[in-house]
Amino acid sequence: MIQRFDAGPRMSEMTIHNGVAYLAGQVPEDSGADMATQTRQVLAAIDDLLAQAGSDKTRILRAQIFLADLADFAAMNEVWDAWVVAGEAPARATVQAALADPGWKLEIVVTAAV
């Protein structure tokens, strides 16, 4: 069985299959905010979706982080490091990418155990 959350005509915010939650790329609510604020907004959205799945950030298996500008890497990591539970950091990749909205500084995709 596949569960779909917030399914729309183009995508779902999250799908769950065989005990694994796959989140769509999460982006900030405020495209005019600084990197720290945008990162906090994205991580809060991830927390909310994982809670809906009956999971949490300690169960994230993999995170893919897309930054519009690698110059923001340190500012993003400062917020990330405060959010990640010590000893529970997931596998992670961070790359620079052109994002769909020019105001977005990052997008994060996670996969988590449920």
From TrEMBL:
This is Enamine deaminase RidA (YjgF/YER057c/UK114 family). InterPro entries: RidA_CS (IPR019897), RutC-like_sf (IPR035959), YjgF/YER057c/UK114 (IPR006175), YoaB-like (IPR035709). It comes from Luteimonas cucumeris. Belongs to the RutC family. Pfam families: Ribonuc_L-PSP. It comes from the Bacteria. CDD domains: YjgF_YER057c_UK114_like_2. Gene3D superfamilies: RutC-like.
